[in-house]
Amino acid sequence: MTRARLYLYDTTLRDGQQTQGVQFSTAEKHQIAAMLDQLGIDYVEGGWPGANPTDSEFFASPPATRATLTAFGMTKRAGRSAENDDVLAAVLNAGTNSVCLVGKAHDYHVTHALGITLEDNLESIRASVAHCVAQSRETHFDAEHFFDGYKANPDYALQALHAAQEAGARWIVLCDTNGGTLPNEIGAITEAVIASGIPGDRLGIHCHDDTGQAVACTLAAVEAGARQIQGTLNGLGERCGNASLTTLIPTLALKPSFAARFETGVSPEALGQLLRISRKLDDIINRVPLRTLPYVGASAFAHKAGLHASAIAKDPSTYEHIDPSLVGNARLVPMSNQAGQSNLRMVLADMGLAVARDDPRLPGILDDIKTREEAGYAYDSAQASFELLARRALGQVPQFFEVKRYRVTVERRKNKYDQMVSLSEAVVVLKIGDDKKLSVSESMDAEGHDRGPVNALAKALAKDLGPYQGAIDDMKLVDFKVRITQGGTEAVTRVIIDSEDGQGRRWSTVGVSANIVDASFEALLDAVIWKLLRDGVRPCPS
Amino acid sequence: MTRARLYLYDTTLRDGQQTQGVQFSTAEKHQIAAMLDQLGIDYVEGGWPGANPTDSEFFASPPATRATLTAFGMTKRAGRSAENDDVLAAVLNAGTNSVCLVGKAHDYHVTHALGITLEDNLESIRASVAHCVAQSRETHFDAEHFFDGYKANPDYALQALHAAQEAGARWIVLCDTNGGTLPNEIGAITEAVIASGIPGDRLGIHCHDDTGQAVACTLAAVEAGARQIQGTLNGLGERCGNASLTTLIPTLALKPSFAARFETGVSPEALGQLLRISRKLDDIINRVPLRTLPYVGASAFAHKAGLHASAIAKDPSTYEHIDPSLVGNARLVPMSNQAGQSNLRMVLADMGLAVARDDPRLPGILDDIKTREEAGYAYDSAQASFELLARRALGQVPQFFEVKRYRVTVERRKNKYDQMVSLSEAVVVLKIGDDKKLSVSESMDAEGHDRGPVNALAKALAKDLGPYQGAIDDMKLVDFKVRITQGGTEAVTRVIIDSEDGQGRRWSTVGVSANIVDASFEALLDAVIWKLLRDGVRPCPS
User: Fold this and answer.
1) Would you say the pTM of this structure is higher than 0.90?
2) Which of A13, A213, A405, A459 is the best mutation test for B, with the most CBs of B within 10 A?
3) Which residues constitute the domain of residue B365?
4) Does residue B322 belong to the interface with chain A, where contact is any CB pair within 8 Å?
5) Which residue ranges of chain A lie beneath pLDDT 50?
6) What residue stretches are annotated with the Pyruvate carboxyltransferase domain (chains A, B) (predicted)?
């Protein structure tokens, strides 16, 4: 049986940017476009050329994608020709093979928001689409507020779609702009559209999550016959977000009732990268990944209930709707039970630490992890600190040096040119063997700008490690993440530091304290000690 | 037309507690039960008496609720009588009027997870339900893995339901335990159950969000005839969570296609408390409320796109699927460089700043926002800093005081008990009118713990504001968020501070710098100045 092809249209770079707090740079847009391409998306909507400098810059040097890059814009304004509409011109000047124009399909919006006649709006749709088609563009027409418009005035809403179809639009996209339409309504109205003479393989669907049903609404339209799916990675988008491609893609690929009937451009290999791509997007927008995200969330295959965990030990399918590895995810069973111990042994084995099944130190390590995670530590993001914790419990971390004290000062005052400037200075006092080492550093960078207290501390700590200096000279701090989190009953600061060395090794360490400087110093120390340990440096006798 | 009654069954206190990181105390369970009662929930499942000390303690001193308090448990084990099953006895000994027993409905789970015969399982269901009914309990039967079981062996799955029905269960609850079933399957199978002889008004539905469709699955079962809805507040629950009552309740109440046919025990007044109840639960479990939550999220009615904002200014219904006040929420027009001049004018009007459409200062303010957001500022999360930016451009922020300099020191060393301890100290020098004010503070909290350099700075800044002191005495720092972000070409630190005053006002300010202490100080300063301005404090002449 041949399966119908569904086309995936991603609007992360345009509608996704309407998310509160999200603002992509041009470089980030390129990064995301590459991720979408790797995933096997058919259309990548890059933004609205002419609407803002970032989007214009993106289209001025567009990424080379296998996916069809699409420029978004609006149907021409009434009272001028398509040829003379500067907004439309900016969209066409982006030079993409594909364009998407949004236009009104709801009579009330035409007369009240635009303030033009119903016929003028149809003429704008017709002329704008025809103009794009004449310029050899594959043209998508986003019918804004289509479902609300259909409920208010079905004849007019359909006329808007047919105007676009007759003008040559390849795709007519039914948009539930306000996100309030329910799945059964979406299904029934999509069927009515097809009955009116627009075939399903020219119909797209664009939903929002305002009733928590964007995915279900999208699938209802597919069931009714629509063949293009618009959405965003991780469900980014205005208000509650757009339909999430991160959820739709695995549902279409892995649920038999869809997989038997439909195919997309996403290969099983690309699907296996889904978690990585989802997390990468969160990295770019600097968000804590949502643990409960379907398929790719850290909790999506976490089994806390004791009954479930023991059944899973017999057969994972008993409490898992899919095999988590198909989307790059993994089962997670809390570390506090028997399954936790075997997990722990596996992790330790990966670090080269073979520990027997009945080693009496295993429960102690698990308890330690539990206590420290309750205090705010996060070991899944700081494997090097986890390794140090385990090695300490196993008596494998020597005392390389002792931190006697440190002090960091930030001072902000006027300089001789009467400008306010800052200066951070750190003093670190160590005991290495029998030697006492005092180091002091400022945090000035090459341009003479102050980089703050943590930078000063890192420089002071690394300035004179005596006999160990050779081992840490090639080490640098490459990332620094700060989170305010809960440690027991009060807020604490968690700092995660990523370090890198000359061999290209990268490792992450964590520190937690109510004092951000202390938390940072703890993570810095772990980073140095891990490096000394991994390089096989021998401690000085003291 | 009479509307069918839908019964709401909340399992926040039992299934909700399977959420990773959630563990309710008995006192918290009482608090949540009271919230559910206020909302108008019909059944409150309090936990599993006998399974853990907290749940047993909760039922030992149960809350007085209008809702029917329900104890959860499991059908008896094979090979013993219902009367002699200690697990079942613990459930009945809780003394509630209502009990819910989970039992197997999937043949594979019976033979593989339980390891008993199919007939033994049916007997366990029959005998357990009959025993509860004989003890005058309203009995719910949770048919675990029902949908997967029906797909594998429909006859056996239905036999399990009928065993419970014949034994006198008031409610037979169809559970999609693994959360992988799709809405159309849920609808079709629920219809098949009704066709088999179990009327819809004895059927409940229990869904999980593993494909992001728990709400849609629940509504599909209601469409098919089920009349009891199980779910949790905010969609808490194992893995991706349970069906969210916080989303289902307003959908049932406010969407015409459901409201015309169904009613629940939730009054319009209670619905107006939905946001407050949702946030209160987040408070209890110490979570940052999810901004994108349907209906009650902080972003659920946020309009970032310039085009949308200008239409909303004419008529809010153009881009809102419901009136946000019906669920206790409010419209939000965030400022960002995406936004156009009409957004800006609306936001300014909300602050009491009427600015004419053609005011020449508007483009300058937008440019300023753009430049600063590129440098790392985020004004949609820091409305008070945005207001100061706009008011400065309009010449409405007087110079209350001048910061001459500050210095903050963090020192970590051994105390007299040979323990490593930290101490943070800050000095702030201000000029107020003609007076120079030097203030110094430590960051010690009531328990003698160091809270770090930002805390010390905040205390020093607020210590002696001379003539302004009265205005800031009731002000406190309630949240502090740190992000490493991109400011132009290099990483900078963005700090957002939430402040609150004695009138319960809450405001957010932002600071950005490569130096975290400087970024924090900038946000602190904005917080103080916003408060002075809003309180109408007059600046001292200098």
Assistant:
1) no
2) A213
3) 306-393
4) yes
5) 335-339
6) 6-272
